[in-house]
Amino acid sequence: MEAMEGWQARWREGRTRWDQGREHPELARLLEHARREGELTAAARIFSAGCGRAHNEAYLARCGFEVTAVDLVPEAIDEARKLYGMIPQLHLAVQDVCVLGADELHAYGAVFDRAMLCALEPAHRPQYIEAIRERLSERGLFFSILFRSVRTLQGPPFALDETAAFDLMAADFDLAWAGAAADPGEGNVSEEWLCIWRKKQRKDGNERKDP
Ligand SMILES: C[S@@+](CC[C@H](N)C(=O)[O-])C[C@H]1O[C@@H](n2cnc3c(N)ncnc32)[C@H](O)[C@@H]1O
């Protein structure tokens, strides 16, 4: 994964152009589909890595979910705490997503992602997906807003279209639902899509059913 220093420098220098200042405009629709096609229940605990200022995670917590949101960079979590530290269902922490906490194995019913998977160099994606898979309970959901195409020659962000997502996910996840997102407008991302994946049970797995 990209070293801590690169992300820390972006936060320290205020280079956070990905930040939308509020929840993503398509998050409410994605959540509706996660409930309907993904059968996401109110009891599900949600994990999100690379949360930045945690606008999306605060929205999910305000919808009634218990949400754990982590970021590698302490400055990001400091800023998230200033904005949303008062929300009781939102648990913010400094953590590298690839380092699994002692109580995190199969602990979550769902994982949300916006601009974390697409922030990673393609070579590092499998490591992230494995970290997600480990955190999810049996048949847990991964729901995400992915970038189908980007305007940058050198990432981050890096595009991840449907074909690349299937190549990455299909061994461990089934696609529960996917749909196009509205035009994101100007900026580094030219096209987005929404997707919901359900974790498959591994033949050797004996994973907890409930989050
Ligand atoms: C492009 S930003 C997206 C922030 C946020 N999700 C949003 O939509 O505004 C990616 C974030 O991932 C964080 N990050 C990068 N590598 C990470 C890792 N290994 N573990 C946890 N967070 C990481 C960065 O510090 C940065 O805040």
Your description of this structure?
This protein is of the alpha/beta class. It has a single domain (23-199), classed as Vaccinia Virus protein VP39 (Rossmann fold, 3-Layer(aba) Sandwich). The chain has six helices and seven strands, in the order ααβαβαββαβαββ. The chain has a seven-stranded mixed beta sheet with strand order 3-2-1-4-5-7-6, sandwiched between helices. The radius of gyration is 16 Å and the shape is globular. The model has no long low-confidence stretch (mean pLDDT 94). The structure holds S-adenosylmethionine. Residues 1, 7, 18-19, 49-52, 70-73, 76, 96-98, 114-116, 119 line the site of S-adenosylmethionine.
Offer a concise description of the structure.
The protein is an alpha/beta fold and 211 residues long.
DSSP helix count? 6
Rg calc: 16 Å
* Biggest β-sheet description: 7 strands, mixed
Quaternary organisation: single chain
Give the helix level as a range of percent.
25-40%
Distance between the termini: 28 Å
The order of strands across the largest sheet is 3-2-1-4-5-7-6
Q: What is the number of beta strands? A: 7
Bound molecules: S-adenosylmethionine
CATH architecture classification name: 3-Layer(aba) Sandwich
DSSP strand (E) fraction? 25-35%
CATH class bucket: Alpha Beta
Q: List SSEs in N-to-C order.
A: HHEHEHEEHEHEE
